[in-house]
Amino acid sequence: MSSLSSKFSVAKTGVFWDLDGCPIPAGLGPVAISANIKLALENMGYTGNISISAYSAEQQSQQVESEFESAHIKLQHRGTRQETDNLMYLDVMFWGVDHKSEATNVMLISKHLYRNADFVSGLVQLKEKENNILLVHLYNPGGLPLRDTATSTWVWKSLATGGTPLVGHCTRPQPPTPSPPSPCSVRTTTTRALRLANKPKKRLPKLRLKRRKTSRAIPAPED
């Protein structure tokens, strides 16, 4: 398994989820999906903040919207499939604009992503600007589209249950390097240690033992 720069390990991750193309698997809910996506990313070494947005052309019930809100997933609705795709595309590109001065991770969950020329072009541009691309397909695409652009590829059912990426297309970021202590803290610690070492030791006072006077018993007079 190859590795990425450690800067992506602690970077923010934006997840953009095509809810219509990759629906929630049976037996799961938004809360479980959110937890499992974060678990899968954490197991791959991504420890930064994660935000998730879901897109659907269908109007969801109030109960479903409440479940997404509880899962901290931003649910967005548009009237048609094309409008929904356009909104998702714009949000992905604006993510790159909003984070242009920092490295980030961008995860796209989509059924037919590789068929959208705008998305493909946009992802290539994002990668060129310090963004690590992660892809999730509904099924195993076989030829792994955008292989040179994405560093890891999941099948949706695997990601939704906290699983690992596809074998052969799985790149883990290097763990962050611990920062060395600042010179000021080292100097302070060293100076304090020297002071303690050179500090004169206090002499304990000598204990003077006083001899106890023993009183002799006076014998009783004889009759």
Automatic annotation (TrEMBL):
GO CC annotations, alphabetized: peroxisome
GO biological process, one term: regulation of gene expression
Annotated Low complexity bias: 184-197
Annotated Basic residues bias: 198-215
InterPro entries, per the entry: Marf1, NYN
Span list, region Disordered: 171-223
Stored CDD domains: PIN_limkain_b1_N_like
Chain ranges of the NYN domain: 12-136
Record field: compositional bias (Pro residues): 173-183
One GO MF term: RNA nuclease activity
Protein name (Swiss-Prot/TrEMBL): NYN domain-containing protein
Species this chain originates from: Microthlaspi erraticum
